[in-house]
Structures are given as C-alpha cells and as structure tokens.
What does this fold into?
Amino acid sequence: MVQVGTMVWLASELMFFGGLFAMYFTLRSTSPALWAENTQLLNVPLAAVNTVILVLSSVTAQFGVLAAERLQPRRTGGPFAFAKWGMVEWFILTFIMGAVFVSVQAYEYATLVSHGISIASSAYGSAFYITTGFHALHVTGGLVAFLLIIGRAYLARRFGHHEATSAIVVSYYWHFVDVVWIALFFIVYFLK
It folds into this structure.
C-alpha cells in the first residue's frame, strides 16, 4: 500500500515539474535573445559531471535496495568488499553523492550570481533558479529521507520487511528526482 501511495504522490510531483517546464518554455519563447545571451554563461562540462554523479547515485541507491530486499542492513565483510555491503553503506554513498550534487549546484548558483544573473535580474534568471532550485530542494528532501532510513536501520531491533519497504519507497523518490534532473539538464543546458 505504501508503494502505491508513493507512486500516486510522485505522479502529483510530476505534474508540479510539468508546470515548471511549461513556465520555462513560455518565458524562453518570449525572450529568445535573453536566453541566447545567458546560456553562454552556463558551465556545461561541470553540469555534465554533476549529472553523472546524480545518475550514479541512483545506481548506488538501487544496490542499497537490493541489500534491503535481502534484509541485510549492514555490511558483512570488509569496508571494500562492495559485494557484501548492506543497505546502510550503499545509502551513505548515495547520500554523499547527492550532497556533492547539491554543493555543485550551489557553486553554480554563486558563479551565475557573480555574473549578474539572479532570480530577480531577468526572466531567464527566474526560470533557471525556479526550475533548478525546486529540483535542488527535492534532492535535499531525498537526502533527509536517506538519513532517516539509515537512522531507522540502526535503531531497529530487527531489520524486517517494514524497514525494507521504507528503503524501497525512498529509492522510488530518488529515481524520480534523477529522471527529472536528466530532463532539466537537457532542457536547460542543451536545448537551443
């Protein structure tokens, strides 16, 4: 039941981001010269590396889910025996990668602000910061969820199906956030 509820909630989130995409395209169509001028300031290689980090974090999250489905909360081997890692280790790695993604986003925002592009400076600034900013907030929410799941795994007397289901649901959300970013990345950084 929790998984179905999560899917319904993610469908509503999809509609939310659909509205943001519509706003972005509408503002872009009314100011093509502004977009051409400001997109030159974007650091595409940095954003591409950041995208790879976020996509790989989805892979590590899925490895954590596989461990949770085996009801293995923590590693059973050495720290570098990745095949024996449990959900906690995979989710910690996912958390680190997600935190790197948000940090790079913050760096990119600071760089753009130093070039005079702020949320109030133009339609481009508004569209860029609102779309990518709401995504960054969703990533941050996912990071908090990972911390809660990791903490719950440590507090549980016995790691069971209830804890595994919680891990699976958080991974659904994380995969959703990744897919949304892939769409945003291509729209913001490559679509001409």
About this structure: Residues 123-155 form the longest helix (33 residues). The mean pLDDT is 93.
